[in-house]
Structure formats: structure tokens, C-alpha cells
Amino acid sequence: MTAAVSIRDVSKLYVMDGGTVRALRGVSLEVPQGDYVAVMGPSGSGKSTLLNLLGCLDRPSDGTILLGGEDVTRADDDRLSEIRAANVGFIFQSYNLIPQLTVLENIEVPLYYQRRMSLKDRRRCRELAAMVGLADRLEHRPAQLSGGQQQRVAIARSLANDPYFILADEPTGNLDSVTTSEILDLLESLNHEGRTIVMVTHEPEVGQRTKRIVRLHDGLVQSDRPVGGAVGK
After folding, report:
1. Which CATH entry fits the domain spanning 33-59+74-226: 3.30.420.140, 1.10.3630.10, 3.40.50.300, 1.10.10.10?
2. 19-31 and 5-16 as β-strands: parallel, antiparallel, unpaired?
């Protein structure tokens, strides 16, 4: 089976006024289809850099990145945009909803980037809103929703393009404990349906809800273990 994500000896260097910063130092990682991975580590460990590379928002300085078997390491900007639009679903800590758009319109945003909006697509977006419990909020705007409801919109939006895998960046960081549990229940149900999820989190209790925890430290993989023995080690 082709891995959803394959990273081989990836390094990322940033040249700044004060010198060169090595955000990643030869990281290798395999994420099989259907896996649910938490990426953890202290601030500055390389978590955000790794997520940006997986989401085709940046390129590695060295190494190789394969998404669904395709080598995206040296893809040009147009191809990276196509890959992001077609294959990656993003969920952010700050939701990143468009304030002027309704719930349904926000869910539809990825389809606009692909220049597609058939009646079938619109019906699917309505079904996604219902799936995340927002069937009665389709005409509401983000300011009329709670934080948990906004994150539900973001999750539905991440699925609109039927992505190859989902990247979640601290998806529960702005939520209370009850809402966090509800959002994690929703992510788990998506994973049970076969969705591949890679999630950055700093919260151990959130990491424990995944299948596997990869710990980064100083741009290196410190540990990579199934949930049950990873937290705190």
C-alpha cells in the first residue's frame, strides 16, 4: 500500500540576519494510509515547519517528500497549489473562516479554488455541515457561532475536496475541555472511516487520542511510538 506521506532525510534551513537556523535536521517519517499521528515537541522543535512542508506551503532544503507516492520536493508553485487544493485538508487553531461568508459558503471555499461548484458539490457540502452537527446553522456567519462550532465548520471545510489526508494544527488549542473532547470525537470518527490525519499538538491528553505520537526535538525525531507508551517518554 502506498504511504499517504513519506519523508526521507528532510532538512529545512532558514537564512536570517543572525545566521542560519536549522528547523529540521534530516527527518524521516512514514505515515500509512488511515493512520492518525500526533506530532509533539517543545516550541522550536520543528513541528510547524514539518506541517508546512507536508501541506506544500514550503519546500525542504534537502531530502525528499512524497505525498500519495508523488514526489513533490521540486514541484513548481502551480503544481504545489494544485496538490494543496486537491489532496490536503487543513484545520487550524484559529479556524481561519472568512467572516463575511456563511457556514455553507465557508465549507465550499476549497471547491472555489478548484473552480468547481456543481449541484452535487453543493449537496455534498450541505451533507458535511450535517455530519458535523451544523445543518441548522448553514446561513449563520462565524461571529454567530461558538468556538467549537467554528472548528466544526473548519473540519467540514477540510473535507470538501475529499482530500488525501488532513493536516490539523493545534485544532483544540482555543477550546475548552468539553468542546475539545467533542472535536476529538469527530476527528476519531473521520479516522475510523479511513481518513489519514496528521495533527500538531502540545497537549498530551490530545496526543493520547491518536494512534501514534511522533516527538520532535531540535529538528530531529526524538521518538516515534504507538499511543500507550509515548507520552512522557
Report:
1. 3.40.50.300
2. antiparallel
